[in-house]
């Protein structure tokens, strides 16, 4: 990599299991365009070495340290674009993109995506369908907000992702416990928006997510994922299904709501992951995230539609309008394995062969303790991915593959009352632990 060659700056690689397919595509695009790749990463590199021209070991979760490292690179290299798909880092990365003058969500856009309270405020002012809501920091505030909004309500951390700490409260008797769970999760978030809980009116209806590119303000949907969640009062995500022929991709009302929301938030260029409830009053945006979806949703999208999210991300990050026309018409889904109770896991075995099986993997190391809500979140031990020609067949194949997962575990006692919110010690990467970010 010569000093005159432009470079693409990537903030955090993520887990090999979750993100290598993206990095591989970005590497291919960069080589074809004559652009180098520089990675800022929180752990020393292993698998990343095959794809990046330079890797700088820095704490990307410390905004000051990350920005100092990025500015050092910008002082000696021409930055052609910037990418980040890690939720805790997207805010600082988006502000850095504006500072460097490269395509990005815009400062207003990335702040509006990261701060759920700001999202609600902006979308309500735009006249879009939204629930009643209030940002609270104390139990008294939460009780008063719930009474004012009307039951049932949902309590959630101000800035967490993956439905962590999101709790349903049917009536006044359930608010105190729900607030404790939401605030417990909020304390994990060390960003500037951490530490608060939002109380909002509950809305019923199927929940979906939409991954899309935004180019110079134009909203370009890639694929829709139908979300499967666990039982109330918690909303843990247990699976997703992407259908290349999903009619929602061409639903005028849904697309109008999404385009208006992105304009109102000031999202200019980048990739977003929007979560929407399909209510009897129309589409209601739950949140918009300034990054690609987690849970391998982009991988499902590629499997089902043929669209390569890495290529699309590269196009947007370097200022080009991406092509979002599907080349495949299939259905792909993922199912996560959860234990029935808190347990200490000794081993996880996943199937190597099953009808339509695309990918299967354990998600934890032996010796990991998994705790279900409210004692912990993301208590996943494995996943399976299957594809088929239609949704019904895909669902049956996911059922069959998930039934082949074997887990050797012993039950453990529940955490003591008042114990801090727990996450699994780490997701299993082939080479290393890189935390729980997906």
UniProtKB/TrEMBL annotation:
Keywords: ATP-binding, Ligase, Nucleotide-binding. One of its GO terms (molecular function) is ligase activity. Residues 120-318 form the ATP-grasp domain. Pfam families: ATP-grasp_4. PANTHER family: ATP-GRASP ENZYME FSQD, FUMIPYRROLE BIOSYNTHESIS PROTEIN C. Gene3D superfamilies: 3.40.50.20, ATP-grasp fold, B domain. This is ATP-binding protein.
């Amino acid at each position: 990599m010569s000093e005159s060659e432009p470079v693409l700056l990537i903030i955090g690689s993520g887990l090999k299991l979750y993100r290598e397919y993206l990095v591989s595509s970005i590497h291919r695009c960069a080589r074809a365009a004559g652009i180098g790749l520089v990675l800022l990463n929180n752990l020393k590199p292993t698998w990343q070495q095959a794809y990046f021209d330079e890797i700088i070991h820095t704490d990307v979760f410390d905004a000051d340290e990350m920005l100092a490292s990025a500015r050092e690179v910008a002082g000696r290299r021409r930055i052609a674009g910037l990418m980040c798909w890690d939720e805790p880092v997207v805010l600082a990365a988006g502000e850095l993109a504006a500072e460097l003058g490269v395509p990005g969500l815009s400062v207003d856009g990335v702040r509006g995506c990261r701060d759920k309270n700001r999202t609600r405020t902006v979308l309500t002012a735009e006249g879009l369908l939204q629930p009643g809501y209030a940002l609270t920091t104390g139990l008294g505030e939460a009780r008063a907000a719930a009474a004012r909004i009307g039951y049932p309500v949902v309590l959630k951390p101000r800035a967490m992702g993956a439905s962590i700490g999101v709790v349903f409260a049917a009536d006044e008797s359930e608010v105190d416990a729900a607030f404790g769970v939401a605030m417990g999760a909020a304390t994990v978030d060390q960003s500037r928006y951490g530490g608060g809980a939002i109380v909002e009116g509950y809305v019923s209806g199927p929940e979906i997510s939409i991954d899309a590119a935004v180019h110079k303000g134009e909203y370009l949907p890639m694929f829709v994922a139908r979300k499967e969640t666990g039982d109330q009062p918690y909303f843990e995500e247990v699976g997703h299904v992407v259908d290349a022929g999903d009619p929602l991709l061409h639903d005028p009302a849904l697309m109008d709501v999404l385009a208006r929301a992105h304009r109102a938030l000031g999202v200019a260029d980048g990739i977003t992951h929007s979560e929407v409830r399909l209510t009897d009053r129309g589409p209601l945006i739950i949140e918009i995230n300034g990054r690609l979806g987690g849970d391998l949703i982009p991988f499902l999208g590629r499997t089902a539609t043929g669209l390569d999210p890495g290529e699309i991300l590269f196009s947007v990050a370097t200022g080009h309008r991406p092509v979002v026309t599907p080349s495949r018409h299939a259905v792909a889904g993922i199912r996560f394995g959860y234990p029935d109770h808190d347990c200490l896991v000794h081993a996880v075995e996943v199937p190597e062969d099953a009808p339509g099986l695309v990918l299967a993997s354990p998600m934890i190391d032996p010796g990991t303790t998994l705790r279900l809500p409210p004692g912990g979140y993301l208590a996943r031990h494995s996943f399976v991915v299957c594809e088929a020609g239609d949704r019904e067949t895909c669902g049956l194949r996911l059922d069959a593959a998930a039934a082949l997962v074997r887990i050797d575990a012993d039950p453990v006692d529940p955490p003591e009352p008042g114990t801090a919110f727990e996450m699994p010690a780490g997701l299993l990467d082939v080479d290393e632990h890189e935390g729980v970010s997906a």
